[in-house]
Amino acid sequence: MTTESTNGSCEPSKITVLISGTGTNLQALIDSRNSDALPNANIVRVISDRQKAHGLERAKKNGIPTTYHGILPYKKKYPDNSSDPQHEAARKAYDADLADLVLADTPSIVVSAGFMRILTTSFLDPVKAANIPIINLHPSLHGDLIGANCIQRAWDEFQAGKRTKTGVMVHCVIAEVDMGEAVVQQEVGMGGCGSLEELNERIHACEHGLIVEGTRRVLEKVRTANG
């Protein structure tokens, strides 16, 4: 949430970022803080489900608090010995604790920037109850490719002559995977793309701008709603 200080100025919006990997999209947010692209905003914590995620080092180098929140202890505590283990009890307990971690910082927004876990209602409900929006960066246009490996799937369809474009979106997170309302999205043309690596480069270049723009748009709505 955004608050007003005693001298009447607007306190910076507080961003919590969830990551799993190298953190290039996190870096885009870090580099854009308090610029015209992302005004009056600070990242208050970076949380990763992977202990060795390079994004944690990016955050530490910029003086941003970090937390590692791994799933393994929850799988040990709530084992699933079925023939097709889904670890639902572990996931729910994990997400409930993740919500507690997030809410402790009273952020204005939660940004999922390459966080490779599907968030359950054990996380979504308490964060929603606190009126904190959650957004996610997804390498596809809304309603096109859903779930994991979207860049690979788009490339395979391009190779088969079934696709000429893909895209990137920032969307609101709901229980249905990748189906929340799009905040902002952008097409990425595939014409002349010679390899999967080149497509990855096009997608990531788009992502770095879009995650900042999506975060800015949602924070503007939060500030307006809070008066």
TrEMBL record:
It is an enzyme of class 2 (transferase). Its EC number is 2.1.2.2. Keywords: Transferase. This is Bifunctional purine biosynthetic protein ADE5,7. It comes from Vermiconidia calcicola.
